[in-house]
Amino acid sequence: MASHGDVKHDYHLVNPSPWPVVGSLALFVMAIGAVVWMKGLGDSGLLAAKNPVIFFVGLAGVLVTMAGWWGDVIKEGQQGHHTPVVDIHLRYGMILFIASEVMFFVAWFWAYFEMAIFHEARSAWEIAGDPDVMKAWAHWPPPNVETFDPFHLPLINTLILLLSGTTVTWAHHALQQGDRKGAMWGLILTVALGCLFTYVQFAIEYPEAGFAFGNMGDTTTANLYGSTFFMATGFHGAHVIIGTIFLAVCLIRLLAGHFTPQKHFGFEAAAWYWHFVDVVWLFLFAFVYVTPKLAMEG
Amino acid sequence: MATNQTAHADEHAHGDHRPSPYNPLRWLFSTNHKDIGTMYLIFAIIAGVIGGAMSGLIRWELAEPGVQIFWGMADAGNLGTDKLFSVQMPDGSHKAIFGNEHGYNVMVTMHGLIMIFFMVMPAMIGGFGNWFVPLMIGAPDMAFPRMNNISFWLLPVAFALATISMLVPGGSMGQGFGGGWTLYAPLSTSQQLHGGPSMDLLILSLHIAGISSILGAINFIVTIFNMRAPGMTLHRMPLFVWSILVTVWLLLLSLPVLAGAITMLLTDRNFGTNFFNAAGGGDPVMYQHLFWFFGHPEVYILILPGFGIVSQIVSTFSKKPVFGYLGMAYAMVSIGVIGFIVWAHHMYTVGMGLELEAYFVAATMIIAVPTGIKIFSWIATMWGGSIDLKVPMLWAIGFIFLFTLGGVTGVVLANSGIDTVLHDTYYVVAHFHYVLSMGAVFAIFAGFYYWLPKMSGLKYSGLLGGLHFWIFFVGVNIIFFPQHFLGLQGMPRRYADYPDGFAYWNYVSSIGYAITAVGALVFFYMLLDMFVLRRRKLETAENASPWGEGATTLEWTLSSPPPFHQFNELPVVAEEKHH
């Protein structure tokens, strides 16, 4: 709270901070760097195509901003600025952030369902120079796509995530009971399960895919199935990694003694985020993994 | 709506710890909603000038048949070097600064994007929302003051990326992206037409502008839900706060879908995915669905805060509480909700099937009901009121008149049978400029003239403000009314040239632009007069409220300008007094 002794409310008037403007500049560098990396903005040197240097400089700036900014939030919380009303702000803020994330996944499911439900409409298309497309899309999934067996690796990953949902709840209950050790083990297990999921998905499942992600200008190996599958599950995977990092930070904060049985919103936010990631996976499992299998068998 | 019962004479004492405006860190590191609101307003003015200059180039090009200023990158030697905007290249040839007809399309594209994302939204939500939502609900600041600042600073970043996008290779046609503000695939994914880095920069620009808006939306929702002063129930909130609340919900729920759609564009362009590539089973029409699922709520995002501003002003200058307060509030809520289920009325010509078209026609028509409630309630508020035609009221009445006109052409276009003929003609251009550049922009000017004394503590010249209004009113109508005729005659959008038959009304339209530009100059002279030449402070008696008894919301209980941190002791809001 600012230096005013006569402030008679519990809101948090945050002190001026460099992070917003620093973070914005870093994001600018990162965006320019991304375009340089993909396309190039000059003929040689730093701006030449495929040069990732600028991108990573920007990314480093964004990461420093995140660490500095959220570090400040933690400090302010420890200093007692997070009064009950500010605590409610943080809760509403997290819920609304998750709501926006849900709408982001709506876009990817939209693309997926459009393909799954209206694929027959594609069989009526006439595409110059590519008559096979018509035939291919009369079936779903398209014939040159070998889908995953949902009750193999995907089921294992489903169980991993559901189990991690229980371990994070264990950690939460332990924390509320003042059982620091139980909370620690619950969190360690959750982080480990998150890492395991990421490993299974990216290191084992993805390389075995019977379809390609993308192939510039060549649609013989890559098609919309691969695009929607990899972008939807890939963005979910990215969110698992973010959630795992969030939980790992909470583990460190737990060990540092930041959380009390009464006040541990940082942990709760991470747990909410983790459950959100979990639910997205259940939708992915049901509709991206299981229903194509049923469609092929039925 | 509600009156403030407690006096705040002591506010002035500790509110004067105001940092110097010449300290750059005050602005760069700001966590103050009023400073951030001011930065948003200045940013919006700058973007508005740039976007407005672009529309000047558009009207210049269209003033006569044939190409005027976008005459090409070829050597103009045999065209004569007196061609407009000619520049001599190192090899001695003469080329057009603005390029060819593709350059014209780039101007049209960027004019749309700049006016929407960098002018109207920052002015209404970032500027007025930041300034007056906390003041009107009796809060000391926004819920997340630091996040508020990154919402602002991401905008110059996004604007810079969009500007750079105009200057780098777009594709085979030249620099920049010329596919329209909707960024439709396959034009935006075509390697041949837009394979250059220009479109990628534009995509990332919109990503960043979207992050800015989503963070702002979270901030406003939390502020409005949790920081209302004691007694300020939802049903006592000023209608401007209601309008911002509905607007930011639309932002929160629609922008992530746009983020997904343009991410698909990005991966289609750079990583070989096939979301919108028909040869790979993808569907370009799916892009239109995803885009307009965002795009239709977006057009309500642009106009809803204007509804709120106009409600405050009409009530103030009629010296009456707004007619049908609850109906007004829930009309905005229902416009917001229905706004999510009408998107495909932008796409009647894609061949979606009759049943679907019938649904979207019916759903779209329903929006006319809550909109009608608003229009008639404004009129009923004025009815029997003691009307004071001060400058903000002129703009507000101008808004009601011209927005209604744009709304009526909207009902025409809602019919898929009629729209099949008028789709992508100047009738559509006229329609959305009536609701935006005469609806949204008039509401912004109304709010600006209404709150400028409050924000600055200075008086402006009512004569100059009125002159600005009347020149603008005449100018914009001369620009856009003839475009209805052009559209009905079948003139399509987004072409640099047209047949001679369309010459007359195009010429009239361009004259209208010149008149409007004069109005803009009057506006800037008004600002110069107010802030530099005369700098007249509000007299002590009218310092808190220059608008008299009609202005009943909480911001008029504070000094002008308000203290750096207001409401250190929260105000208590009592039940409103009815007339």
Structure description:
The complex is a heterodimer of chains A (298) and B (579). Chain A is mostly helical and 298 residues long. Chain A folds into two domains: 1-81, Helix Hairpins (Orthogonal Bundle); 83-297, Four Helix Bundle (Hemerythrin (Met), subunit A) (Up-down Bundle). Helix content of chain A is 69%, strand content 0%. Chain A has eight helices and no strands. Chain A is globular, with a radius of gyration of 23 Å. The mean pLDDT of chain A is 92. In chain B, 60% of the residues are buried. The model of chain B is unreliable at 1-15 (pLDDT under 50). Chain B is built from 17 helices and four strands. In chain B, helix 4 packs antiparallel against helix 8, helix 4 (101-137) packs parallel to helix 15 (426-456) and helix 15 (426-456) packs antiparallel against helix 16 (462-488). In chain B, the strands form two sheets. Chain B has a two-stranded antiparallel sheet with strand order 1-2. Chain B has a two-stranded antiparallel sheet with strand order 3-4. In chain B, a hairpin with a 2-residue loop joins strand 3 and strand 4. Chain B starts with 10 loop residues before the first helix and ends in a 46-residue tail after the last helix. With 579 residues, chain B is mainly alpha-helical. The chains are: A mainly alpha (298), B mainly alpha (579). Chains A and B meet through helix 1, helix 3 and helix 7 of A and helix 2, helix 5, helix 7, helix 8 and helix 9 of B.
Q: Tell me the series of helices and strands of chain B, N- to C-terminal.
A: HHHEEHHEEHHHHHHHHHHHH
Query: What is the number of E strands of chain A?
Result: 0
Main pleated-sheet profile of chain B: 2 strands, antiparallel
Quote the distance from N terminus to C terminus of chain B: 12 Å
CATH topology of the largest domain in chain A: Four Helix Bundle (Hemerythrin (Met), subunit A)
Poorly predicted runs of chain B: 1-15
Radius of gyration over C-alpha positions of chain A, nearest whole angstrom: 23 Å
Report the helical percentage of chain B.
55-70%
The CATH first-level class of the largest domain in chain A comes to Mainly Alpha
Q: Tell me the CATH architecture of the largest domain in chain A.
A: Up-down Bundle
Give the mean pLDDT of chain A.
Answer: 92
Question: How many separate structural domains of chain A?
Answer: 2
Into which percentage range does the β-strand content of chain A fall? Answer: under 5%
What is the strand arrangement across the widest sheet of chain B? Answer: 1-2
Subunit arrangement of the protein: heterodimer
Overall mean confidence score, pLDDT of chain B: 93
Q: Bin the helical content of chain A.
A: 55-70%
